[in-house]
Design brief:
Strand content: 35-45%
CATH class of the largest domain: Mainly Beta
Radius of gyration: 22 Å
CATH architecture of the largest domain: Sandwich
CATH topology of the largest domain: Immunoglobulin-like
Order of helices and strands: HHEEEHEEEEE
Helix content: 25-40%
Number of helices: 3
């Protein structure tokens, strides 16, 4: 974590030099552009390294939210609990809901779990059919083995009964 902070601080120290160099001849501007590109690449690599250090693949669990259609349920928030402990609570904006309806997928949680069985509970809050307040839950037991575990919380419209269905899928 200290190295990550040190790199960001050193990157910030380069900014005044880069700004000053932009008023220089084109040879120097090319060098500045090259330095900017290297700083961006370094920041991306640091982000990936930090994620790998904090969440090693053998203990990693990721939880995603997706939505299909969204006619019978207007999502407001999602709360996720693993083994009785709240690990995520997210309140959605209209833009985020629109992105989910268009096929987007949001990673709502990334964390570490030991091998074995774990109970995952998700609560979905929003507006249901006829504009009524709606709160439903979905529960499943996930089995964490070696390697990363991916869980999808899927909201699907059921046209036969005009109700939303909340499904949990393991990958």
């Amino acid at each position: 974590m200290k190295n990550w902070l040190r790199t960001i601080c050193s990157s910030l120290l380069l900014v005044p030099l880069l700004v000053a160099a932009e008023t220089q001849p084109t040879g120097l501007q090319d060098e500045v552009q090259n330095l900017k590109k290297q700083v961006l690449e370094l920041n991306r690599d640091l982000f990936l390294l930090e994620e790998e250090l904090l969440f090693p693949s053998n203990t990693q669990v990721s939880v995603f939210v997706s939505m299909d259609v969204g006619e019978f349920f207007q999502l407001d928030s999602v709360t996720v609990q693993i083994d009785g402990k709240e690990v995520a609570n997210y309140l959605y904006t209209q833009q985020e809901i629109d992105a989910l309806v268009r096929g987007g997928v949001q990673r709502i949680h990334i964390g570490n779990l030991r091998n074995g069985e774990h109970e995952l509970v998700a609560f979905f809050t929003g507006k249901g059919p006829h504009g009524r307040d709606y709160r439903r839950g979905a529960t499943t037991v996930i089995t964490k083995g070696l390697g990363p575990k991916y869980v999808e919380l899927k909201i699907v419209d059921q046209t036969n009964n005009h109700q939303p269905e909340f499904d949990v899928k393991e990958w």
